[in-house]
Specification:
By secondary structure, the protein is an alpha+beta fold. Helix content is 20%, strand content 34%. The strands form 3 sheets. Strands 8-9-10-11-7-1-12 form a 7-stranded mixed beta sheet. The two termini are 19 Å apart.
Length: 338
């Protein structure tokens, strides 16, 4: 964690799903499949992609990269990509749009290089890609070569630092990793494992679909209404969300913190009051960077305001926690956008 926050780290993200979407109706297709808007998305940019089912329940997320007018590269979650691809095929069998869909997950390896020194490490390996902020801003997509390997770079990440997600042909993954490790030696580069990555994302308050969501989670409950295009005539789940928005949500996913010295709440531990279950913890960990325990939990709407006090049942009793605004770390996002 410290390597990414203070220097640079490498995260293997090859298990992420990848889908090629191309054809004259590609933008229209994605506009219907995901909650956000993609028809006016400019080539060379990426946008967050939230997927809901017909009931308005969140079932996956990723990013949509527009490579040119009629071609997109879409990422999906590791465990969800096959289901997402099936859904895409099923919907287009009904819509009959002029679009081709190819699951390219196994065709790519990917590495996320993240940290204040990420740009410096990449600089010596780049060919045909300008890395400065003006030429390659946050939420941009560029294609070129890294260490002689054809690559697609995404200015995005899960950890809240300056970062580049590098996608290369799968047979080049090991060569890319070795080149980045060698180039990063002068900057103290470190490989970053799954547990460290999950703490980094937790400090930024990023949701993991399937861990922080369940079979009832809506964008409103996840406090992700910002990811819904309000003026689109249609998207899968849109009609259900309009109905749900007329009713007050009974629960919200919130950030919370506890003092460093208390027993650590775990995923699945209950938020309680007077022996009544009010909600549950979905993610939690000790943040040494922040100096306190932080986590995500579902709580009743009336307890969702920052500053509200909640109680969590742990193995040895009850611990007190305070609801906090998200993200816990770098709330203005300046570090990842630099």
């Amino acid at each position: 964690v410290a390597a990414v926050r203070r220097g640079v780290g490498l995260i293997d993200v090859s298990t992420l799903g990848g889908i090629d979407v191309y054809g004259v109706d590609a933008a229209e297709f994605l506009n219907r499949i995901y909650t956000f808007a993609y028809k006016k998305q400019k080539p060379g940019t990426l946008r967050y992609a939230l997927m809901t089912n017909e009931a308005g329940v969140v079932i996956d997320d990723g990013v949509v990269c527009r490579l040119n007018e009629d071609r997109f590269y879409v990422t999906a979650t590791t465990g969800g990509v096959d289901g997402v691809f099936r859904k895409m095929l099923q919907w287009n069998a009904e819509w009959q749009l002029d679009v081709t869909l190819v699951n390219v997950t196994s065709a790519y390896s990917a590495v996320n290089i993240a940290g204040p020194s990420a740009r410096d490490v990449l600089q010596s390996l780049c060919d045909g890609i300008q890395l400065d902020k003006d030429a390659f801003p946050y939420l941009g997509v560029r294609q070129g070569r890294i260490a002689g390997i054809p690559a697609m770079l995404l200015r995005v990440g899960f950890v809240g630092e300056l970062g580049f997600e590098i996608h290369v042909p799968s047979h080049c993954g090991e060569a890319l990793w070795d080149a980045l490790m060698n180039a990063g030696q002068a900057y103290g580069v470190r490989p970053v494992g799954v547990e460290a990555q999950r703490m980094l994302r937790l400090e930024k308050g990023h949701v993991i679909v399937g861990q922080d969501t369940d079979a009832m989670s809506t964008p409103s409950e996840l406090q992700m209404d910002w990811a819904i295009a309000k003026t689109k005539p249609f998207f899968v789940g849109g009609r259900s969300l309009k109905v749900l928005q007329q009713k007050p949500a009974h629960r919200k996913l919130v950030g919370f913190s506890c003092d460093a010295g208390v027993a650590l709440p775990r995923e699945g531990h209950l938020v309680v009051e007077n022996e009544q279950m009010l909600g549950r913890v979905t993610s939690c960990g000790m943040s040494h960077m922040l100096g306190r325990i932080v986590g995500l939990a579902y709580v009743p709407t009336q307890l969702a305001e920052p500053g509200s006090r909640i109680h969590i049942g742990v193995d040895n009793g009850i611990v007190d926690a305070v609801v906090e605004a998200l993200p816990f770390y770098d709330p203005d996002g300046k570090r990842q956008e630099c």
